[in-house]
Amino acid sequence: MKYIIEEYKKEWLFFKKEMKVIFLIMLVGLILLMVGSHFLLSALIKSQPGLINSIAATIQEALSGVDLANDSPFTSVIKLFFNNARVCLISISLGIVPFLFLPIFTYFINGAIVGAVTAFSSAVANFGLSFFMASLLPHGIFEFPAIVYACALGIYLCKENTKIVLKKSDKRFINVAIDTLRSYVIVILPLLVFAAIIEGTITINIAMKFI
Fold first, then answer.
1. Which end of the chain is less crowded, N or C, counting CB atoms within 10 A of the terminal residue's CB?
2. Is pLDDT at 144 greater than 70 in this prediction?
3. Range list of H helices, the chain
4. What's the predicted TM-score (pTM) here?
5. 154 contacts 188 by C-beta, under 8 angstroms
6. Which tens digits make up the pLDDT trace of 75-93?
7. DSSP per-residue codes, 79-119
8. CA 17 to CA 13: how far, in whole Å?
9. What is the predicted pLDDT for the residue at 1?
């Protein structure tokens, strides 16, 4: 227990020093991105109804086999957790490549996917704001920060690795990687566990009441 407490203290200091600003900027940016992609895709669907099938295929691919309507709650929770954990790990790992800041692409993709889901639901089933709030917020308060933090960690990893390659930093890559991995294990994964449990057992039941 003492070891765990010490690790969370290290994480808090790391967050305040290295991650706080970029995390908050990216969190606000994700909200704006989701809202913007919703209205953009809604307008495109109205002008080109054929886009609905393409958006549906994209959403299904992003869910990677998760079927909340037919899977058991336990199966849904497991699938949701591992799907999101994989996405977050990819977002972080892309930061290993210096100069390119590749995690920004997964950041935009995640925001666009949420916007696509809400635009699709609105166009096909005419669901309103209350449905979106009920179907996204319960698990989203855990899932969205986890996804944003993963992307922010990927950006941090890329930034620091770029400095190391250019010999503009005294940090060692192994130390930067350890800080990043600690954040993934003790912050992101617990958040995703809570998000998966809520989405697989609570959110689906709330959403079904609107159908």
1. N
2. yes
3. 2-14, 20-47, 51-63, 73-93, 103-125, 129-165, 173-183, 189-198, 204-208
4. 0.90
5. no
6. 989 999 999 999 999 999 9
7. HHHHHHHHHHHHHHHGGGSTTT-THHHHHHHHHHHHHHHHH
8. 6
9. 85
